[in-house]
Amino acid sequence: MNEHSNSQENPFPVDLGHAISIVIEHYKGYDDVEVHLFKPQWDKELEEALDWDEILGSPIRDESLADPVRSRKILLETFSSQENETVLNYLKSYYESRLNSLHTRIIGYPIPKDLIPLSYIPESENIGIIRFEDNPNYPLDFPVHGVYDLSKHK
């Protein structure tokens, strides 16, 4: 399994911003399926305490698509440095033989106001959510989900 990490300094005023993606060797009959992991739950008090004017930036595409409340979730779905290590250790312990690669990085700063959080991506025939906490003997004390799109894989 290849492991890639972007070790840049965290620009956020809080210990969040770590993004994790994995590539599963074979999943649902497809090869090399990329899965982007996220936290489906977060601390509401932290969400209220952050200075979102500092964290959120201008939209990438169109001001009319900007939704600052929705865009907050981009950061809130990411992992803290400790959660990042915990998830990586979990993936290596339970899934290493099934993973082609594991990628970690800090997300970009500031966060554009027109991005869509991973938790907002609707499931469909090709797009799905892996709910890791539904696995027997799930060892983490927080849920982790992963979104994938089979239409992008052979």
Write a brief caption for the model.
The chain is of the alpha/beta class and 154 residues long. The protein has helices spanning 44-49, 52-55, 68-76, 81-95, and strands at residues 2-5, 18-27, 30-38, 56-57, 99-106, 111-112, 127-131, 145-149.
Oligomer designation? single chain
Give the helix/strand class.
alpha/beta
Order of helices and strands: EEEHHEHHEEEE
State the helicity in percent bands: 10-25%
List low-confidence stretches: none
Overall pLDDT, averaged?
94
What does this entry look like structurally?
The chain has helices at residues 44-49, 52-55, 68-76, 81-95; strands at 2-5, 18-27, 30-38, 56-57, 99-106, 111-112, 127-131, 145-149. By secondary structure, the chain is of the alpha/beta class. It has a 6-stranded mixed β-sheet with strand order 1-5-2-3-8-7, with helices on one face. A hairpin with a 2-residue loop joins strand 2 and strand 3 (30-38). The protein is globular. The model has no long low-confidence stretch (mean pLDDT 94).
